[in-house]
């Protein structure tokens, strides 16, 4: 088993930038990623798309070209289609690649697994024809695929407007955007406006997204406070209401989005401390000023640490790589470190504005209707969880035993936050007091044939299968 100074998990913007920085400093580095090629969700399939689709996806997508080019030029060791399923206390990282189990040993581990789209549990969200806006964008990046038929987008956040415009430019029939951002959020967000050059450019980019929607005649309905998706065997319409009007829009596809949240599965697996952040309404790993978690040698970077955006993610990972190099007794130029810190601050100075403006409404996170499904895998409803809370159920983990909520193929990724918030709302406790699912190996599904070939020496006390 080969030992590396640094094992990076995830080959998106943060993972690639951190790995490149560490490699440049002379550290031995390997990157493990479950995709077919590096780039992550943000820069997915960048090198293989048509010129037309590359133009539609825009400059922010093409920013990844430099990262990918440098990774190739420097011969960065990137293991594609490597699915990490266990990390031991000794920092041995186990992964499956081509149905074979392999392992590498790490002096330090950089977790750069990015973010997940926040759950959006509304009536009908599990019907065929309903997907996330991010999922639709991935289809465009993966194979220039767009939904055929009438499309309605609903929710809040920059990605919603970006995807609406991209779909329209690609020839999709985008009927409307149902914007759930309440009017009060605009006034609260203004207090956090900082008009530095970088943040001003980001604001102008946002205005450009809305102008693109307008140019393609996409109807925008604001301050939506209730959404229900209608249909029998598949979605065929979305019903909405605001404080003053209500309506129904027929649609073949409904794309939902209300922001993204860190993917915390590996932190829970490793025993890293996590904490609820009320500004972003999600759990974050607790990190120090050098991006290290509460477990020594485990570093959290990019949107996997807290939501910051792709460009800021690169600089966070570079800072973590510098710290890992210093831990290995390498001398770091303070000017380089200072420059990276300044760039990171510039790229994140708009974060409070965005978090405040696009803070999702409680009714779209904590379903008020008891029959709304919140666990897609096991078809558990909001009412079942609130009934358990009223009966004295201790929290998400005990609810898992009673209902199998969180035990499906997604392993709680799509329902975890909703279950935590439902318990918090029902009991009057904070999300930190309620807690989150315990995450055990295997972190990702793996073939039994591969598992049967795993060397178990030294693993018996470390792996629990549930």
Explain this structure to me?
Helices cover 36% and strands 21% of the residues. It contains 17 helices and 21 strands. Strands 1, 2, 3, 4, 5, 6 and 19 form a seven-stranded mixed β-sheet that branches. A hairpin with a 4-residue loop joins strand 20 and strand 21 (380-381). It is an alpha/beta fold and 466 residues long. The mean pLDDT is 92. Helix 1 (13-24) runs parallel beside helix 10.
Radius of gyration: 22 Å
Average pLDDT over all residues:
92
Structural class category: alpha/beta
- Major beta-sheet overview: 7 strands, mixed
**Helical amount among residues, as a percent range?**
25-40%
| Contiguous uncertain segments of 5+ residues | none
**What does the oligomeric state look like here?**
single chain
TL;DR?
This protein has 466 residues and is an alpha/beta fold.
Descriptors:
7-stranded mixed beta sheet; 466 residues; 21 strands; 5-stranded parallel beta sheet; globular; alpha/beta
Topology:
Blueprint: E1 3-9, H1 13-24, E2 29-32, H2 51-57, H3 59-62, H4 64-73, E3 78-79, E4 82-87, E5 92-97, E6 100-111, E7 115-117, E8 130-132, H5 133-143, E9 150-156, H6 158-169, E10 173-179, H7 183-190, H8 197-215, E11 219-221, E12 226-230, E13 237-241, E14 246-250, E15 253-258, E16 260-262, H9 265-270, E17 274-277, E18 282-285, E19 298-300, H10 310-327, H11 334-348, H12 351-357, E20 373-375, E21 380-381, H13 382-390, H14 396-403, H15 416-427, H16 431-434, H17 448-452
